Amino acid sequence: MTTRATRRNQQRAQRRSPANSRLRAVVFAVVAFLIIGAGAYLAGSVFLGQRGGTSVPGAMTMRISMAGFDPKVMTAKPGQTLTIDWWNTDGAVHLEGGVHTMVSDTANIHESVAAESRKTITIAAPMKPGDYDFWCDSCCGGKENDQMHGTLRVES
Ligand SMILES: [Cu+2]
Q1: b (16+ CB within 10 A) / e for 64-98
Q2: How many C-beta neighbours within 10 Å does residue 137 have?
């Protein structure tokens, strides 16, 4: 007769068999590889993205990602033309194909940058000193998202 205890022992022995634990190790390795790979893919654009240096003469650098504009504040003299070496560290897996924009109705800015790319843009600062709001309207709630805003500060 098979008691419940012996049946439990048999099951335990089966679970501990070498073939079973080898299979479990393989499954674990595959799952771990997939998770680490996916994480590295998503993080790669952030951590391996280009840093603050620029080879564009007279340009300021600005990075855009789902984390927002970096830096968030640009300073200019009235009417000054700002040259911005602007890059997007997000991959195309993000919302809207990873495209980010820089938009301002008050400062007349309408720019966009494709996923994982870099471009030089020029912005003409308004003549009137003050803080001009700009934002990204292509992702994450656009203008409604506080994270996706920046300030163009015109100082006389
Ligand atoms: Cu955006």
Answers
A1: bbbebbeeeebebeeeeebebbbbbbbbeebebeb
A2: 18
Q: How far is CA 141 from CA 54, 70, 138, in A?
A: 30, 18, 8
Ranges of the chain with pLDDT below 50: 45-49
Q: How far is the CA of 68 from the centre of ligand 1 (A)?
A: 7
CA distance to 18, 27, 28, 155, per residue, from 23 (Å): 9, 6, 8, 67
Distance 127 CA to ligand 1 centre (A): 27
Give the pair of three-digit tokens for residue 24: 């479990």
φ, ψ (nearest 5 deg) of residue 28:
-60, -45
The neighbouring-strand residues paired with 111 are 102
54 CA from centroid of ligand 1 (Å): 22
C-alpha 45/C-alpha 43 separation (Å) is 6
- Ligand 1: distance of its center to the CA of 137 in Å? 6
